[in-house]
Structure formats: C-alpha cells, structure tokens
Design goal:
The complex is a heterotrimer of chains A (221), B (190) and C (374). Chain A is of the alpha+beta class and 221 residues long. In chain A, 44% of the residues lie in helices and 19% in strands. Chain A contains six helices and six strands. In chain A, the strands form two sheets. A three-stranded antiparallel sheet of chain A has the order 1-2-3, with no helix packed on it. Chain C folds into three domains: 141 residues, Immunoglobulin-like, CATH 2.60.40; 63 residues, no CATH class; 146 residues, Immunoglobulin-like (Sandwich). The chains are: A alpha+beta (221), B mainly alpha (190), C alpha+beta (374).
Chain lengths: 221, 190, 374
C-alpha cells in the first residue's frame, strides 16, 4: 500500500497512535488528520482490530505436545513448584549457602538446589555428593512421559524364555513370540525382576492415582 | 476421623499458609504460562520457566509490598525470566531494530487452509511467527500484558525509542498478516 | 454376582477395533460367579492389529470398570492376563495395591498389552483376563492365587501399614513441616536411585565371550531379620550373572515357608543398584539351614557408553513368610541403612503418598493419612 508521506502520517506513526503510544503533540496532529481522512481511519481501525484479535487469541492455550491436556500439565507444573520450594527451604534448614554458579535456568537451578540438598541429607546418610546428577535427571523424568514403545533387545535364541523390564514396559519372550505390558502415562516407574522368571514395573497411574504393578512371567519348568 | 487429636494452632496456621500458596499458584498459573509461552514459543521451555518464575516469586514473598499488586509483580518476574532465557539461549539482542520487510516466502500453509481449519490459534501462531523475537516480546508486553512503554523498555533493557520501533513494526506486521489472511479467505472459491 | 462374561457379551461400551480383528477375537474376561468383584464395563477403544514383517502385532488396550460386590473393603486386586495361543507359558498380571474400595464402590483398571505372534497363527480369542486374587482389609483373600498374588499383595499391605504408621508418627511428633521434609526426602531418594533395564533368562549359558568367574556374595545383615544369610555365590561374566546359590539359616523360633533375598550389584564404574530378587519357597524349621538355587541368568544391557561389568554383589533378606502365614518385612529403621537407602525403591504406599503430596499438596496428604485406620 503506497502512501504519500506528505499528506498522510507514516505507517509507524499510525501504529503507535492506534495503541496510544504517541506523545501528546503528535497524537493531536494525527487525530486532526484522521478527522478528515477516512482512508487513515480505516487504517487505524485495522490496527486496533489486529490488537483486539491478538489479545483475544493470546488468552487461548496453545496445542500441547503428546496429547497433553492443560489440566495434566498444570498439575505437573504445580508439583514441580512444590518440590522446588521445599528443596529451597530444606537448604535453608541446613544453613549451607548455595554455590554461586551462574543461573542457567530452572533445571540447572534445581541441580544446584538438589546438589546442596543431597549434601544436607548426606549429613545423615553419607550419600556420595555426585548423585546430584541423578536427582536432576530423575526430577526431569518426573515430567509426564507417554510410554508406549516395545523394547527392542538382542534376539533370544528360539528355545530361550526371557522376561525383561525397562521403564518403558516389560515383556516375556518365548519361541519368537512376545507378550508385553506397557504403562499409560504415569509418574515414575520402578523396575524389578525375580530370578524365578518374572519382571515387573510399578507406577502410579497419573489419572487414577492408583499404584499399579504390571508383571510378566515365563513358564515354570 | 483424626486419630491423633486436634492439630496445634501452629500446625493449623502452617497448613493454612500452604493452602494460600496453593491458591496463589492455581489462580495465576495459566496466565503466567501463556505469557511465558508467547515469548519463548516452546512448551517445554515455557514449563521450565513457569516453574522457575513461581519458585522465585514465592521465595521472595517478603519483597512484595502491596498484596493487590501481587499479580503484576508476578508477571514482571515471569517476563523477566522469559526474556533472560531468550537472551542466554537465543543470542537475541533486544535492542537492535529490525527493518520492516515483508517475509520473502509465503507462509507454509496457505491462509485459506488456516481459515478452512478455522483455527484461530494457528492463525495467531502463524502471525506471531512473522515477528522477530524482540518485536514479539515488545508487542506482547505492551498490547497483551498492557504494561506502559517505559516498563516494557525496562524489561527489555532498551531505550524507550527502540521499544516504540519494535511495537510499531510489530503492530504493522500483525495488521498486514491479518489483512492478507482475510483477503485470501474471501478469494476462496465457494 | 453373576459371571461377568455375560455382561461383556452385551456390548456395553465396546468400540470397533481397527484392523483385521473380528468380533470372535475380542478378549475374554472371566470372573467366577462368586467373585467379589464385578465387571461393570470394558472399553477397548484404542486396540488394533497390524501385520509387521511376517508377524502379527496386536495392540490391546482395555479400560475396565470394576465394582466391589462384597461386604468388605478391598485393599488389593490382581488380574491375570494371558494369551495361550501366543505365549503358551508366558503370562502377565496387573496388580493394584493400596486400594480403599468400600462395598459397592467402583474403581478403574487399565490394561495395555501388546502381543507379537507369527502371521499364520489362528485368530481365535487371543487374550484372556481372569482374577488371580483380591485382598481385603482384614487380610483375608479370595482367588485361585496361581501367581502367588496373595503373598505379594499381603506383603505390600504390610509395608503400606508400616509406612502409614511411620508418616503419621512423623506428623504427630514434628507437625506438617516435618512431614513435608519426609516427603521431599522420599522424592529425592526416588530421584536419586539409578534405574536399569534388566533381563532374566531361564537357564542360560553365558552368551557373551567374557570368561566366567565365580563371585561370592557379601551380605547386608539386618539385625531383626529371622533369616540369616550364611553364604552365597553366582557365576559372573561381564554383564551377566548366572545361577545364584545361597545358603540361609532360620534363626527364629518359628517355621518359615518362603523368603526373598535382594540382590545388589556393583559394577566396575562404581555404580550400584538393586538388580533383582531371589525368591525361595522352602520349609525351614527353626535353627535349620538350607540352600537356595535358581537356574536363571540376569543380564544387563549397555549402560551408556561404558558396558556394565559386574564387580561385586551384596545380598540381604528382604522378606520372610512364616508357616503360619505371618510375615516379616524390614522396619523403617532397617531401611535407613545407607546402602539400602541408595538402592531400594520406596514401598507402593510411600510412592502413592509422595505423588499425592506432589500433586495436591500437604493438606491433601494429611487428609489421606487420616483416612486409614491402620
């Protein structure tokens, strides 16, 4: 859209006017022009409409990845805030200053908090300090995971019976056939196996809050 | 059905304080998440930064002077957190001014398709993607969060004049984008 | 309390499957006529079948709704999931513990199952779902107990009561702040605990080319354990541990019929984790010593860039069942030992409570604790 800069105000000026961002004097000049110029009135209206649309649409939730709903995501965020706050306070309790590292974001902050927290607990349990990395990795894993993939592993020889467990799921394999049990979205998964020939994974179902343990067994002989 | 007798006054007060904290989080969570998300445009990052913002805010509660300003104060912490993040990770210089050029290529999805899907959301995402990081941040802070221009400048650590340029460019681009989409929708064969 | 398969046939909430699955291939859910739980509805909405390179992949998802048709509160349930045509010997189970389901109340159960079988196999009913056991709050039990679910669920219930008692005492003596600290510690320990993929292979000769060596077990002795581990060894080759042999002694004054030994593995890189458990059904009179042997192989996959090389092993008695049906489990004090803290997962109930704290906050956690009477 070509504009003659002599007669009409500049596009940028109109944009600022539309949002109330011009100084008093400029505002008066533009308003005076608008009174006589319907073309520019439309322009300002279009700018204001765009602004209204922007405000309306900004209030909408974006599409969340992995079929996540806002209610699940907000629960997770709230939970992590809670844990993060408690971690901070636990440090205060031990009166150890947090190491002064540059702020790198929440995950790293939690490492710092977590590392110090582990130091604190180490008072009683003599945990080695380097396990702070596990804390970080696992607090990241507290994040909701969509689990649904079959584990791929080295092929068993045909006559072998195998049970296997990983946080993604458990399976029993016999004669080239497989039966797997998988978790729905859940918070944390604990793996366990028994030498008698079973593999299990325990998790807290995120929707129902129920503690569920899936197990697979190979045949006894 | 408590089997340990009535809670002590201290315990009751403690639990009540916890509940207040929960309320503060639940009342503001969605709004703050959206604010941060619009700035950083990534859900995972927005989640991390939202958590960080609330933790910071709740740890600094004693710095909050007036309770009725709590929402604004929280917004400020949130947008600061998001802008800091962009600065650190995106190597965005918030104070250079972009020239107002039209995008060279058409958006990957035609406006007809966008309107056909009647996804206002995609509409907005599309439009916002036309803006640079700094234009988008300035626009969101000014037009959505409705902060006065001086505060926006403070947030972004730029001069007021720079911020005004960002805002002007952003508004023009958004207006043009929406006009283009509307025209394309009208051209749609029925 | 009629048979639930009748209910199933009346197609309450059945949705059509995608893929080539016919109605005859729908799962069979069979609860006996006197079962304390009824199947109210079953939804298989997301199930489908697809062919993949000469094999048939069946993805089976069931959302069941069950109702407590008895007069007692249900604390645990174990469903047996099998596919006789596919894995004749192999089966699965889904167990839910720490339940609090009163008479006539309903609760959900999810089953997500995947079957892989050769294409030419018949398409008859592939999946059967049955009831292995229901545990009530008076610790009575119903069910065929083919999977030893009575013992498993009773152990879990004992642990749940131990832990609820513990957290309630923390709350009573230290107030909510102290309880919160405990929750945080629990979450921290859970986060801190390394988790590992692991395989158990029946029998098994070493499948890697590492030389096999015999390694002795070290033992972590819990002071009040009725069983004392005396001696033990296993054959180790790189990342495989085979054929554990253990010698245990009953130092209590009661006969024992079952025990479980936890197996902690330490690798060359200094990592340590609870690899698995060695269970044993035996008859152990007071003072008697006996041997446990299991002909199976534990295998660990690659752990990051460094392959796992087992360097040493530690065993500890993790549970005991006496002949009269009572149990022994480690106390909270026992669990506080540094090594166990590093490797042991929290009980079912502790994990459930920690999630309640994380998601709903302290007040909700306190309310939950007060709901149970023990």
């Amino acid at each position: 859209m070509k504009r003659s800069t002599m007669k009409h105000p500049a596009e940028a000026q109109m944009a600022l006017f539309a949002g109330g961002d011009l100084g008093r004097w400029e505002r008066w000049r533009v308003a005076r022009h608008l009174a006589r110029c319907s073309e520019c009135q439309h322009e300002v209206q279009a700018l204001r409409d765009a602004g209204t649309q922007l405000r309306e649409l900004s209030a909408e939730m974006p599409e969340l990845p992995n079929n996540l709903s806002w209610s699940r995501l907000s629960q997770e965020i709230t939970g992590n805030i809670r844990v993060g706050l408690a971690a901070g306070e636990a440090i205060a309790l031990f009166d150890k200053p947090a190491p002064s590292k540059p702020r790198l974001g929440w995950n790293a902050a939690l490492v710092i908090l977590g590392a110090t927290l582990v130091f604190g607990i180490a008072f009683w349990t003599s945990l080695p300090p380097q396990q702070a990395e596990h804390l970080l990795a696992s607090l990241k894993r507290i994040r909701t995971e969509r689990i649904g993939n079959v584990i791929h592993s080295a092929a068993a020889t045909p006559e072998e019976a195998v049970v296997e467990a990983s946080p993604a799921g458990i399976q029993v394999k016999e004669n080239g056939r497989t039966l797997s049990l998988m978790q729905p979205r859940s918070d944390g998964a604990t793996v366990s196996v028994s030498m008698q020939g079973s593999a299990g994974v325990r998790f807290v179902d995120a929707d129902t809050g129920q503690v569920t343990t899936n197990k697979v067994y190979y045949a006894e002989q | 059905m408590s089997d340990r007798g009535a809670p002590s006054p201290a315990d009751t007060a403690y639990l009540a304080a916890q509940e207040l904290q929960n309320r503060f989080i639940s009342d503001n969570l969605r709004r703050i998440f959206l604010l941060i998300y619009r700035i950083v445009r990534n859900v995972d990052d927005a989640q991390d930064l939202t958590q960080e913002a609330f933790i910071k805010a709740l740890q600094r509660q004693d710095q909050l002077k007036e309770l009725d300003k709590a929402a604004h104060w929280l917004s400020r912490i949130a947008s600061n957190t998001a802008i800091d993040f962009l600065r650190r990770n995106g190597k965005v210089n918030f104070c250079e001014i972009d020239t107002l050029v039209e995008p060279l290529s058409e958006p990957s999805e035609t406006p007809e398709q966008a309107v056909l899907r009647s996804e206002h959301r995609a509409y907005l995402e599309e439009g916002l993607s036309v803006l640079t990081d700094r234009e988008r941040t300035a626009l969101l802070l000014r037009d959505v969060e409705e902060l006065p221009a001086e505060l926006v400048a403070e947030h972004m650590n730029c001069s007021k004049a720079t911020v005004r340029s960002h805002i002007a460019n952003a508004r023009i681009k958004m207006k043009r984008y929406m006009e283009r989409s509307r025209r394309a929708a009208q051209r749609k064969p029925s | 309390m009629r048979s639930s398969s009748v209910l199933l046939a009346s197609a309450l909430a059945l949705l059509p499957w995608n893929g080539v699955v016919s109605a005859a291939a729908l799962p069979k859910i069979d609860f006996p006529a006197d079962s304390p739980v009824d199947l109210i509805s079953a939804d298989y909405g997301e199930s489908n079948e697809s062919a993949r390179g000469g094999a048939l992949l069946l993805d089976f998802h069931a959302a069941l709704s069950l109702r407590n048709a008895s007069q007692r509160k249900i604390r645990g349930i174990t469903l047996l999931v099998s596919a006789q045509d596919v894995t004749p010997g192999g089966k699965g189970s889904v167990t839910i513990t720490s339940l609090d389901v009163g008479p006539q109340e309903t609760f959900p159960v999810r089953i997500d199952l995947r079957l892989l079988r050769p294409l030419q196999a018949s398409s008859s009913v592939p999946v059967q779902i049955g009831l292995d056991g229901v545990l009530f709050d008076d610790l009575s039990f119903y069910g065929p107990d083919k999977l030893s679910s009575r013992r498993t669920m009773t152990l879990s219930e004992w642990e749940a009561r131990r832990d609820r008692r513990y957290f309630k005492s923390v709350l009573a003596s230290g107030g909510p702040e102290r309880l919160r600290q405990e929750m945080l510690e629990s979450l921290t320990h859970e986060a801190d605990r390394p988790s590992l993929d692991v395989q158990v292979v029946r029998g098994g000769r070493a499948t890697n080319f590492e030389p096999e060596k015999q390694l002795q077990f070290a033992f972590l002795r819990l002071p009040d354990s009725p069983v004392e581990p005396v001696d033990g060894m296993a054959r180790i080759a790189g990342n495989e541990a085979r054929a554990p042999r253990l010698e245990v002694k009953n130092r209590s004054d009661r006969a024992i019929r079952y025990l479980e030994v936890g197996w902690i593995v330490h690798d060359q890189a200094g990592r340590e984790f609870l690899a698995g458990s060695v269970p044993a059904e035996l008859n152990l009179a007071p003072g008697q010593q006996s041997r446990i042997f299991e002909n199976a192989t534990l295998k660990f996959p690659q752990l990051g860039a460094q392959p796992l090389a087992i360097e040493s092993m530690t065993g500890f008695v993790s549970s005991v069942e006496f002949a009269d049906g009572t149990l022994w489990i480690p106390t909270r004090g026992d669990l506080g030992s540094p090594q166990l803290q590093r490797v042991m997962a929290p009980s079912d109930e502790e994990q459930r409570l920690a999630q309640i704290y994380r998601k709903k906050g302290l007040t909700a956690l306190v309310a939950e604790l007060n709901k149970f009477q023990p």
